[in-house]
Amino acid sequence: MASKPLISSTKNLLPPLILYRKILRIHRYLPLPLRSLGDDYVKSEFRRHKDVTNPLHIIGFLNQWQVYLKDIEQQVANSTNSTNSTSSKEVKFGKKIESDVLEKFNEQQIGQLYTLRNETKLAIK
Hints:
mainly alpha; 6 helices; 70% helix
């Protein structure tokens, strides 16, 4: 019984290599500074997790990157729609992290998020 949730949650997950490639492909639509930063980050995270053997950790990792992919695909779709329209709406990529999710981060994750935030601000300037 305990394996059913694990199995059902893996049915919709993309294989790691396909997910990795899709993310890098969608990054082509990002502004150049964000694309460069995003590509470097994705490559390092996938490299860092390539030898993980814990199935729950692997599923969580792939699931979160798949959520990211869907978010970026939606934001890219919105950006292409807004550039085709006559409004001068500013395109924004990314989203705010909910406080309940942020509270679950450990110190290392908070530090990594802070570094990523600073790098993003530098890349955009």
